[in-house]
Amino acid sequence: MKTIKTRPFLLLLFIIALPLMVLADPPSLGNDDVDDTPIDGGLSLLIAAGVGYGIKKVKHTNKK
To answer: In the Cβ-directed half-sphere of 54, how many Cα atoms lie within 13 Å?
Structure first.
């Protein structure tokens, strides 16, 4: 019996299990007092990271 390679097996397991991890709850019908989730939660962090990375790249090119 052939041995299973660990890394490809774990990658395949992750790819198969990923849709189960990202499933959202179904929309609630008739429950209007639920607060909406803000969109800005991670977007501001991504923008800040992009600005920081851009500043780092500009400083690195100016040193050369």
So the answer is: 6
